[in-house]
Design goal:
It is a single chain. This protein is mostly beta strands. The protein has one domain. It contains no helices and ten strands. A seven-stranded antiparallel beta sheet has the order 4-5-6-7-8-9-10, with no helix packed on it. The chain has a three-stranded antiparallel beta sheet with strand order 1-2-3, with no helix packed on it. β7 and β8 form a beta hairpin. The radius of gyration is 13 Å and the shape is globular.
C-alpha cells in the first residue's frame, strides 16, 4: 500500500494518495491521467508532478516541484533535491525505498 501527500510549488495540496487510492484537488490547473501516468499542472505549461505507476508495487516520481512546511522538493527521476528553510540543501541520487513502513518523512 502506498500513501503520500503532494503539493504544488506554493504549498497548496494537489494530490493525496491513501492506501493506493488517489484524490486530486480542484485547485490544480490541470490533472491528466494517461495510461499509467498522472500529470498535475499548477499553471499553463507548468508541470509540478508526474507520477508513473509500475504495477504491482512501484510508484516512480518522474517530476516533482513542491513546497511543504517551508521545505522545497525538486526531483526528475534521477535525483531528489531537498532545500530546507535555512538554505541547506540535500541531494539524493540512485535511491530506492523498498518494503518499508516509511520511505521518507520530514
Amino acid at each position: 500500500m502506498f500513501s503520500g501527500l503532494f503539493t504544488d510549488s506554493n504549498g497548496e495540496v494537489s494530490l493525496v494518495i491513501e492506501d493506493n487510492e488517489w484524490k486530486a484537488f480542484s485547485n490544480s490547473w490541470d490533472v491528466e491521467v494517461k495510461g499509467q501516468t498522472i500529470t498535475i499542472r499548477e499553471a499553463h505549461k507548468v508541470v509540478h508532478l508526474v507520477l508513473r505507476v509500475d504495477p504491482p508495487k512501484t510508484v516512480i516520481v518522474e517530476k516533482l516541484n513542491m513546497s511543504l512546511g517551508g521545505i522545497r522538493f525538486e526531483a526528475n527521476g534521477d535525483f531528489l533535491k531537498v532545500t530546507q528553510p535555512n538554505g541547506s540543501i540535500s541531494e539524493l541520487t540512485s535511491c530506492i525505498f523498498d518494503n518499508c513502513l516509511v520511505g521518507m518523512a520530514f
